[in-house]
Amino acid sequence: MKTLLAFATFSILLLAACGAGATNGTTVNAKLTDSTILIDRATVPSGKITFQVKNSGTMVHEVVVLKTDLPADKISPDPSEPGKMLEDGSKGESGDLNVGEAKTFTLDLEPGNYVLLCNQTGHYLLGMHIPFVVK
User: Fold this and answer.
1) Cβ of 45: how many Cβ atoms within 10 Å?
2) 3-class DSSP state for residue 2?
3) Does domain 24-134 have CATH number 2.170.190.11?
4) Is 7 exposed, middle or buried (0-12, 13-18, 19+ CB in 10 A)?
5) What is the pTM of this model?
6) Distance in angstroms (rounded) separating the CA atoms of residues 33 and 18
7) Helix (H) or strand (E) holding 5
8) In principle, which of 40, 42, 55, 91 could form an S-S bond with 97, CB 3.0–4.6 Å?
């Protein structure tokens, strides 16, 4: 009985130790104003990236994550939606954030170059875009 109890205890400790080194991914904090996207990290390791986004502006905003090798200020306009940009390469987005609202979303991103942008009508053209790198 003591052997069985010792084995069970050892097994539980071994399983707990295996999970101890696991990470929950990387968090990027983003603040949206009426003309900028501010982030606390411009480069992150690949894997699960959690974006914590806060709309500190005076109008509705969003964050779209595009995988692209284009510079942040060279995203193509969407001909079907004037004032918006094409979302080719989109890996996900926050959805609309009302004034003062915060949202969190997680994406599994592979290494590469990305652009974070607000694709509310006209906002990209106001400067609401920023380069982002996943290593």
Assistant:
1) 13
2) helix
3) no
4) exposed
5) 0.82
6) 42
7) helix 2-20
8) 55
